[in-house]
Amino acid sequence: MVNVEGPWVDRVLFFGSRTFDAGRIVVEVVIGENDRLDVVLKQFQRKVIRAGVLKDLRKKRYYEKPSEARQRKAGAARLRLARARRRAV
């Protein structure tokens, strides 16, 4: 929570959508006085997905050996090349 000046201070939440030096990804949603909670939650969910927070959590759930990471990246590169070739035709 970030301190903000104004009469509506208690109605504003900040979840930042920036990457800081420590590598943390934070998603920011500002809640106004008349905003509906369901709309704000959907907005927060969209920003979390776009920021890649869930994808990063799933990726870091288990340790991946460097050799496995290389294999995964090589496989992804092969798929990208195959898709690019299909699109070029």
Fraction of residues in helix: 40-55%
Secondary-structure content class: mainly alpha
| Estimated radius of gyration | 20 Å
How much strand?
under 5%
Following the backbone from N to C, one meets helices and strands in this order, namely: EEHHH
Rounded to the nearest angstrom, the distance between the terminal CA atoms is 52 Å
Q: How many discrete domains?
A: 2
Spatial order of strands in the largest sheet: 1-2
The best one-word shape is elongated
Spans of at least 5 consecutive residues with low confidence: 6-21
The total count of strands amounts to: 2
Would you tell me the overall average pLDDT?
A: 80
Largest sheet, described in full? 2 strands, antiparallel
**Helix tally?**
3
